[in-house]
User: Fold this.
Amino acid sequence: MSDPTQSGSDRPGIGAFSLDHQQLQLVLTAAGSVGSWDWDLAGGRLYADARFALLHGVDPAEAARGLPPETFFTRIHPADRLRVKMAVAGVLEGAELFSREYRLLAPDGTTRWVEARGQAQHDEEERPVRFSGVLVDITEQKRTEERLRIAQSAGGIGTFEYVPGFATAEVSEQFCRLLGLRPSRVVPIRLVNALSMSGESIFAPDMDSGEPGRIVHAEFQVRRPGTQEVRWVARRSEAVADSENAGIRHVGVIYDITDSKLAEAELRAFNEQLGSMVESRTRERDRIWQNSRDLMVVADTSGVLEAVNPAWSELLGYDLRETVGKRLHDFVHPEDVERTSMGLDAAGDRSAASFESRLLHRDGSPRWFSWTASSDRETVYANGRHVTTERAQAEALRQAEDQLRQAQKMEAVGQLTGGIAHDFNNLLTGVIGALDLLQTRLAQGRTENLERYAKAAISSANRAAALTHRLLAFSRRQPLDPKPVQANQLVTGMEDLLRRTLGESIRLEIVTAGGLWLTLCDPNQLENALLNLAINGRDAMPEGGTLTIETCNTHLDRAYAAQHQGVSAGQYICVSVTDTGTGMTPDVIARAFDPFFTTKPLGQGTGLGLSMIYGFARQSEGHARIYSEVGKGTTVKIYLPRYHGEVPDRAPQASNEKLPFSPSGETVLVVEDEAVVRDLIIEVLEDLGYRPLQAPDGPAGLRILETDQRVDLLVTDVGLPGLNGRQLADAARVRRPNLKVLFITGYAENAAISSGFLEPGMEMITKPFSVDALALRIRQMIEAPAQKS
Assistant:
């Protein structure tokens, strides 16, 4: 096979265009980190956007007009070039996806790391005709990962993050090496705790509670598996607020203190043999005392220093004559005096107390020490290890990990925005193309097929609206209308629709639980979720099978809630959808709720169905979970919290056979900053016999409402500049307390659940809406009896 990356064109690469490193950094920062390409395989031309071109050191204008592919391949680092070409060849020969990390050579000789992902498109004879994809700049992420690895290895410090109640903890490679474990990013809590020789858990109980900012320190003797070597390790962590888990997490380090413990044991032996203090020292004890790099202290029970070793001069700059006879607290940082007193008070002759505190250097600067203290009835013996460097390294590691986490989040945002742009461009092409043809035919005086063009535009617009709705569901920003729902009735009411959707080759079974509790949710969203799951199940059973929908009452206990972020323990109803299809691998399950992730062929799925279901469940204070095994099918469970209220009587459904005309010419004030939308609503109102008033923003609308003009209904957008819709309604009701208000919203950040946003006499309609829906809602509100706010 010939190399697919070679072009038949002999056009040379662009030589006149170049940027130095600083200019490239500025341009890439302004342009963003995500670029895209489109390779016409038949024409031998590769088209790229500005960001892709800049990363490859190519003129964006030339790249937009198309260049031979080899122009771009020559920018790949020589060590990576063959590997990338082979991966491209594999995709063109039939591989499903292209995904590679590699380096690019900038014009100034520097390198940047990128990650590229793409797919090939084929003609009817399965020959590849195009190869398109996106490219993400991951240089900073790579640099952060390398700095973090070097810092941990050089410092001999292992790091970890632990959320109380979770079964696992995230750790560094150095953490595993210190404990004799195989390197891994995640370790089971049970396995780590089993290494402790005292039986005391390494990750509990002193880390299971506490306020953010609380620092905990402990020491453990561990036996490394395999070699059975016994070592001492110290663990130090700080509790930090964890918004994802609505609680705390501990970020900390461990380090080996075996040598310090041996010195401490020698000191304890020395102290036990100490008869008349300094006069009776032996030569060996004097060596330990004189040469130790740790602070050694002999003091009375009130904290007065009776003897200190020479390390005080080396580490703190004091002459020994300046220390003996003074209280230890005279050298302690004022903020740590109470902590030091508590540590010394806890020291006993059969147990050692461990704590950390800062001592002040002679020049006034603080130094951190990790203390171990024991005492008899009259004397306190303490050993302080200098840990200022370890604390600084731990803080540097924590910052590096935060930077890495931020880089990963930005990569995810880049993938998300790229997917959104792709789908919306497709939908907008359908809308604009149909309207252009409609306009052209009208200009030509040709009226045939006009209805077909209008229907095509409406169809693409409705698909765009559905995509927006799913995006808002995933981000938990769409306005919900929660109501008490009897899930059994909702599921059985969908049976006919589901059977028509599934087809004859798939058997539908519905199993409803007796005595099912009520739940509070948006019934339309629950119906959409079940329909999406049924379609997914159908697609997973191309040869036919069984789809089962079940309902039940359940209780999620604290143990389950602790293992799943954002889940609260309590009573739930569960609606599950099970298919007997192809199933999912563990890595697919892990990404199934991610936006735009889909295993379906190109063009057959947006990848938003499951993410919308996840967003709806979480926004309804519930939970969603996937259980699957390859070849044995998939179960998706939606947990919704139990509702203890009553089910209200159903309101009569309004007829939509004919738009309701205004018999009395009521006055409706429309406040909308988008002129196209405002003009559309005004025209609808005029056609239906209303007397419309209009304002482009909140202040203008308020000026009308502060006059004596009659206003039967206020129709206002929520997101207005200057004075938003809710502020306008509140201000208007000061003068007109019974004013009816219909809010229009496309993104309700402050009204995530409409029942918590609306007062009596207020309702909400979501963009985009049909003319029929708007007319019916206006008529219903005007005819409804006035309610005092």
Q: What stands out?
A: The chain has a mean pLDDT of 80.
